[in-house]
Structure to design on (71 residues):
């Protein structure tokens, strides 16, 4: 996949979107930066169709101690 970077300035705040720069094994990924905050989202999918009547969704959240200033 091709890497793409989009920078947007809104109300003197810079937002930066970096597509497919991280999580190379995922089907798609974006890294969002605004100030000192960084958010990474990745999506993985399979080519075969799902035969179930619901969408299995998993969210993994990890807060590091240094991110909460608890060192």
């Amino acid at each position: 996949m091709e890497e793409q970077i989009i920078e947007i300035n809104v109300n003197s705040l810079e937002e930066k979107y970096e597509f497919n720069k991280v999580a190379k094994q995922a089907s798609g990924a974006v890294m969002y930066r605004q100030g000192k905050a960084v958010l990474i989202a990745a999506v993985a999918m399979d080519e075969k169709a799902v035969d179930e009547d619901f969408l299995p969704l998993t969210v993994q959240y990890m807060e590091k101690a240094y991110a909460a200033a608890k060192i």
Summary: Residues 1-45 form one domain. The mean pLDDT is 84. The radius of gyration is 16 Å.
